[in-house]
Structure formats: structure tokens, C-alpha cells
Amino acid sequence: MRIFFVFGLLALVCISASAQRGYDVMSVPRIDKDKGRFVIDPDGILSESEQTELTKRILNIREETEIEIAVVLIRDYDHDKYEDNRHFGNELFNHWRLGHSRSNLGLLILFLTADNVRKVSFETGDGFSGILTDAASKRIQTKRMLPLLKSDKYYEAIMAGIDGVLELEDEDLVPSQKAQETQEANEAPADQDPADEWLMYLFFMGIAVLVGLYYAILPLKAERKNLKDKGWIYELYGNKSYYVRRVLLMSLFCFPTVIFAVVFFVVRFLVFKRKLLRKEVCPHCGVEGNPCSVGGGRCSEITKRHLFSDGTYTATTIHSADVSCRSCGAIWTITARVNDSGTIPKFETEDELTAFADGEDWKLTKYIRSSWSVDSSSGSSGGSDSGGSSSGGGASSDY
After folding, report:
1. What is d(CA 58, CA 70) in angstroms, rounded to the nearest whole number?
2. Nearest to residue 386, comparing CAs of 33, 30, 24?
3. What integer pLDDT is reported at residue 169 of this predicted model?
4. Are 31 and 37 in contact (CB under 8 A)?
5. Which residues pair with 333 in a beta bridge?
6. Which residues pair with 220 in a beta bridge?
7. Cα–Cα distance, 315 to 286 (Å, whole number)
8. pLDDT digits over 208-232, tens only?
9. Is the pLDDT of residue 32 over 60?
10. What is the 3-state secondary structure (H, E, C) of the chain?
């Protein structure tokens, strides 16, 4: 019995020492981006309903603006490990990697609630540079949050602080930048030199030429490859309308590209078709000529891939289609063999890898992931995105 009493006393001493020492970044309960947990309140300062409402608002903001907010309420941090609350908050922000790597709009609102501490601080992601400045963070804390925190109205103070941040984010620029842009707009010249107008005209004409090259000339490369590899199978059964429609639409909406559309059709139908499509010999009557398609006939392909240990593969696809002779009407099957190679994609299961090797691509799973989705191979709760970072922006206030 005395042994159990001694062990219990030691446990209480350890717990008391840990509580007195305060939190480090590893001991703070972790947020969970996948499950939408962004409010950390181990002492239950916020009520359950307040935590629920606050979490809903944080998730709505996250979906609409990519601003990712985490709210942490703890008694104190480990003063032996961190210089001050800003140092601790910055380490915690970067440990959790708040924000999305694309926009880096992370915000950590940290409260220290011990009677001898009582501080609130903002740690901001680098994407807030020029928007949520250190001065703006301090102003939001002083004018919006501190009056409420002095009455221990934590929930109201958090909501007021978030309102202040969103108002700045909606403005998108600090006032000095807006004033500069307005001044530049007012100082724009009233009239322009005719030479400048010609330069602008030539500039837009150059863009039109580049668009025409892309939408009319470049597709010829794909058409040449299809005709060369598949021959009459592609000419009779292939999806040629994609490139034709592409060229016609660009000619309609961008008139200077008409010349490129003419080039496309001339080269496609008068050069490539005559040069690459050899005559087929009817196996029944022996007449050499151009075959025609068979209504309701067969047009299929079979793919086999050989997988190698270095992560690459080679593939052979056999295309086949039924054609008919224009002279005697006989029907026979023509084939075309196309070789390919590449890198083996990553699959979740062996069955998918086998389906890929057998050319049964319809059995492969197609994943549709959001930008905030979770990578199952990752051990962190940060999701597939690498997350944001903070270089130390923000502010702190006593209450």
C-alpha cells in the first residue's frame, strides 16, 4: 500500500512540475486539418457551443479565402525553452505549418491565460505581408480585443479579432499603397502619341499571331502523328473534329488567325493526307484504292505494357477497324501498331498495377482531390499540401 502511495505522490509531483513549467510546441494538443480541428483549449475556457461556432467560422473562412486560422488558449509556455510568447508562437506556427503553401495566409491567435501572464499574440504567415502588418495586428488587439479580454469575454474577443483581420484582407492593400495607385491613375496622360498607338496595335497583333500559331500550326504536329501511326483507322474513325473545331473557333474570335486556319486545312487535307495515307489493296478483288468506313463496324484497340524494375515501361497498342472496298463492297479488317514508353505511375494496389500492365485502364481509380486533401502516406496532420510558414510577423499585447 505504501508503494502505491509513493508512486501516486511521484506522479502528482511530475504533473505539477509539468504544469508549472508550461507547454512546449510538442506538448500542445495538435490541430487536425483533416478533421477541421483548429481550436485548442485544453482548460475549457470556451464553452462547447462557443468552440463549435468558432470552428464553423474558421472553416468557412478557410474555404472562401484560404486564410487558415488556429486559436490556442493555454495557461503558459515553457520559459526555459523560449525567449518570450512571440518566440513560442512563431515556433508553434511553423511546427503546424498553418496556411496553404500557395497563398501562405496562416494566422495563429495565441492566448496565455495564467494570472501572472495574460497575453494575446498574432503570428502571421508570410502571405499577409503588406496586409496584416505588425502595426495592424497591434491595432486590432488594442481596439477590438483588449476591452473584451479585460472582462474575460474570450469568445467575443476572438470573433472581434477575426472581424478586424477580414476587413484588412478585403481591402487587400494597406492605405499607403491604395493612395499611390490612385495618384498614379490620376496622373495618367490625357492623350497619347500616335506612335504609341501603333506600338499598341503591333503588340496586340503579335499576340494574335502567337495565338494563331498555337491554335492552328501546332495541332498539325498531332494530326501528322495520328495519320502516320494509325493511317486509315484514324482518317475514317478517329476524332478529327477536335482540331478542326479548335481552328475554326479561333478564326471566328480572333480574325488575324484566319490565315493560319487556311494553312492548317491546306497542309492537313492536301499534304499530310496524300503523303501519309497509302492506298489499301482489297483482299477480294485486288483493287487498290481508298477504303471507306463500315456503318456500325468495329474500331477497337488493345494495349499491352511491359513493366521494368527501373520504374519505366514500354507499350504496344494495336488498333483495328473494319473497312469496305469502294469497288466490290467487300469488308475486311486493317490494323495499325503504335509503340509508346514512359514512367510507371504510382498505384494504390497491386490490382491496379496489373490492370495497367494489361492495358485495362478503365479499371484504374481516378482520384479527385481538393487543394486541402490529406495524403495518406504522410504522418502529419497537415494534408498533402506542404503548408505555410511565418518569418515572425505579428504582434503581442498584455490584457
Report:
1. 8
2. 33
3. 59
4. yes
5. 322
6. none
7. 34
8. 777 766 666 667 777 778 777 777 7
9. yes
10. CHHHHHHHHHHHHHHHHHHHHCECCCCCCCCECCCCECEECCCCCCCHHHHHHHHHHHHHHHHHHCCEEEEEEECCECCCCCCCHHHHHHHHHHHHCCCCCCCCCEEEEEEECCCCCCEEEEEECHHHCCCCCHHHHHHHHHHHHHHHHCCCCHHHHHHHHHHHHHHHHHHCCCHHHHHHHHHHHHCCCCCCCHHHHHHHHHHHHHHHHHHHHHHHHHHHHHHHHHHHHHCHHHHHHCCCHHHHHHHHHHHHHCHHHHHHHHHHHHHHHHHHHHHHCCCEECCCCCCEECCEECCCCCEEEEEEEEECCCCEEEEEEEEEEEEECCCCCCEEEEEEEEEEEEECCCCCCHHHHHHHHCCCHHHCCCCCCCCCCCCCCCCCCCCCCCCCCCCCEEEEEEC
Residue type, 111: F
Q: Which residue type does 122 have?
A: F
Residue 398, pLDDT > 60, answer yes
Euclidean distance between CA atoms 163 and 120, whole angstroms: 16
Query: In this predicted model, what pLDDT tens digit does every residue of 326-342 receive, in sequence order?
Result: 888 888 888 888 888 88
Residues whose CB falls within 8 Å of the CB of residue 80, separated by 6 or more in sequence, listed in order: 21
Q: Which cell numbers in the block locate residue 41?
A: 483549449
Is the pLDDT assigned to residue 108 strictly greater than 60? yes
- Backbone torsions φ then ψ of 23, nearest 5 degrees: -85, 150
Strand partners of residue 73: 111
Residue identified by cell 520504374 is 311
Under 8 Å between Cβ of 89 and 393: no
Tell me how far apart the alpha carbons of residues 31 and 387 are, in angstroms, rounded to a whole number: 13
CB-based burial of residue 204 (10 Å sphere; 0-12 exposed, 13-18 middle, 19+ buried)? exposed
Q: How far apart are the first and last CA of the chain?
A: 47
Return the amino acid letter for 180.
Q
Tell me the mean pLDDT in the region 346-363. Answer: 82
Report which of 296, 308, 313 is spatially closest to residue 359, judged by C-alpha positions.
313
Q: Which residue has the higher pLDDT, 375 or 79?
A: 79
